[in-house]
Amino acid sequence: MRHITCNVNNLSSLLQLAGGFILGIGLWAWFEKGTFDNIAKVANVPVDPVLIFVVVGAIMFILGFSGCVGALRENIILLRFFSVVLGIIFFVELAVGVLGFVYKDWFRQQLDNFIQANIIHYRDDPDLQNIIDFVQSYFQCCGGEDYNDWENNIYFNCTLKESRGSREACGVPFSCCKDQGNNNVLNTQCGYDVREEEINDIKLELDSMNPDQGCVPQFEAWLQENLFVVAGVAIGIALLQVFGIYLANSLVSDIQAIQALW
What coarse category fits the chief subcellular location reported for this protein (predicted)? Predict the structure, then answer.
């Protein structure tokens, strides 16, 4: 029984530390942005990408805390909570994986809708902006299906060029530009005017953009190329969860067996 208690405690402590770290990053990002300084920013919390860190971190921390305390105090309620929640997470992940394979076209559409929705709010949140720039730079893509998706963002909409004279109008973010190789100076204006019809062909001939490579097809290609790595990581996480469920249930059985002797 002692070695099972130690294993549950070690696994729970690791989960608790990881959850606390992720939660800390999320809360720090919120305070840095002054999210709670006024009501207007609090209202935008549901669309803030930092919310993912806060929710995931909080769940991991609470789950790790319940497993750790449950093992040390031999508390059956906390251990069962740990086991049940871990089981729910496991089956949710399994369901998402199966449904993602069976209904891949639907998931592809949802991914595209998600990207389109976030393109609209590109300038509204610095964290969201950094995430989009990272994704477009890493996958060498632009927009959801193609670079014309940036027409949906008010700052890059072509109508602003005439009405307000916006410099970013009819353009795309700099993260849509191709890697300039050894050029250490970041050209943040490389995406200006690339969607303007009279100069669009010239821009494309310069081969400085990734115009036709949307992030959805690029992500699909990346997933196919790294399928074994992704599958290996997913299986590893699943086995760790199953191991945690097994340890928690074994410890509960041992505790109940000892209590039956009283």
Answer: other
CATH 1.10.1450 residue window(s) in the chain: 121-218
Q: What are the distances in angstroms from CA 154 to CA 136, 160, 195? A: 19, 8, 14
Helix, strand, or coil here: 209? strand
Q: Rounded mean pLDDT of 81-87?
A: 95
Assigned token pair, 139: 């996958």
Q: Could you say which DSSP state residue 141 is in? A: -
Note the pTM of the prediction, 2 decimals: 0.79
Report the distance separating Cα 83 and Cα 63, nearest Å. Answer: 9
Query: What is the CB neighbour count within 10 angstroms for residue 34?
Result: 9
In the chain, what is the greatest distance between 2 CA atoms, to the nearest angstrom?
Answer: 87
CATH 1.10.1450 matches 121-218: yes
Q: The tokens of 204 are what?
A: 């494309």
Short-list 217, 214, 221, CA closest to 150 = 214
Q: Could you report the per-residue pLDDT of 180-200, keeping only the tens digit for each?
A: 666 666 777 888 888 876 444
Stretch among 4-8, 94-98, 194-198 having the lowest mean pLDDT: 194-198
Cβ-count burial 124-152 (b if 16+ within 10 Å, e if not): ebebbbeebeebbbebbbbbbbbbebbbe
One-letter amino acid at 31 equals F
